[in-house]
Amino acid sequence: MAAESGSNRPKAPGSMTGMSPISPDIGTSSFSFGGKPPIEFMQFLLGEEIFTLFGDSMLNEAFESAFQTVSEFIEDSVILENLGNSNSYSEIVTATYNAQSFSYGKRILRVLRENTTDEDTFTDTQYYYPCRKISQHNDNAFNPNSIFYENDPFDPVWYISDDGGIKIAPKDASSQPVGKVYYMSFPKFGLGKEDDANITHNLGNTSGFNNFSLIGGTDEEQIFYGLPIEARVLVYLDMALNLCMGYISNHVQDDEDTELVTLLNAQVEFLTGKRQAELQRIVGQFGAAKNIGMSNE
Amino acid sequence: MNKQQITELLRLHHKDVSNRQLEMYIEQSANRIAERTGAIKKTFLISSVAGKRWYDLNHSIIKINKIYFNDVKIPKLIGDPVIDDDEVTEPNDGADTALSAPTANAENKRFWMISDYDSDASNAKNKRLGIVEKVTNAVTRDGRTSNYQSCSITGTSNIRVYADAFASLFASHTVGTDEDDAMLSTVGPLKDIPTAFHEVLLTGAIAIGYKYPPTLDFNVSAAFEQEFEKGIRRIKKHERTKVSTGFIKPQDF
Asked: Domain range holding B127?
């Protein structure tokens, strides 16, 4: 939910200038696309003629895909900083993150291991140490005779076990140590906390956000947990592009509707240009440059 | 620097290697410093046994500087006694007659010597320290006479060896039990190299790391080797001057 006060509070736009021509309503969107809910901004981006081509299913999938695409360009630390309003982005129960398939469908952002003994004689602090990721399959991380042996609690490691759970090493004697796993699951319309307590975006039937079209102007944040507010436009552009491209490849060629093809192509060209400019800005500001080959790090 | 700090600095260069590898790089760097500078000096205690000539030496010893027996400094014997005590070859040679037990004597003219020969049946490679006593016509065999008999005294930790040594290794604990290492600058090689020269230890470890994948880069390694050499010279200078005032001033009491 948007904040009650502060710079992120819901507010009505002060002027009608620049508002979407789709609807005259003045909403309370925290992002404030003229106060419109996301669905109306999508309508604004695509235009009425094209927008009416798509149903809920296509809209949902286009958003889910766009979210994943955009999040790939954003560093883990930025994602983590933008998860604060979600209640499900960290797990401290060892049995839960150890459990089968915990890592599936999630982006693991950070794993910490708590030291077993006190390190500070004044406050008895047991510090958390960040873990490096290793693969359990290609080395001898747990063989004491190997140069690949990992047994330093001050430089711990994590890995995904055979069953998809997350494990931390070194163990605390023979047990899994106390740890903390930060993650983000990707939004999936129709899946909410009633299905899995570790879902970051609560988009199930219970929440009432089980379709993209049901997200109101003040609920926009629900589908954007993890992404900085500056990246939302890019997600919408990518979503619009997904919709147009998908429609072109699936329907228009069969129908030989040349007028619609021309319209969609023009829209794709426009969206591609906008998306490219927006992507460069986002990558420059939040980007994990190595992911897209912009750096030799 | 404590272990965690030096490991973290090392990981800035070699981020994708295991922590055991990082420990090995530090250990190798420390051994190179020890070998080149003699900066690591230790004492080792051995217990003498009446009739036993040869004693295993700790294999971290590089060079013996002096030896005290019962708190008395004893000289090194130049050359070998003409009659040896064949327990030097382990397992003992039981095929011939052992030398008779040496008799204690009041002269206490003891010498030390070194043997680095092992039996081909031995699994370990150890240098051995020999302790002999000079007693006129002490041992005879095959018509020859030797003035050197084996040590005739049994004692507890009564042989003190002062030596240049290689660095200690990081403890290889069982899983999850080396919890308190990281805060300490007194673990493994870190306790052997003076704190002021931990920076040199780090430079050497970085250089060694660049000689192995996944951070193999001989050019970078050479650059760090140069820095390491400068550090070695600093440590050598420190070793030469740390206990010397440069001149001796007479003092009346």
From this structure: 41-165
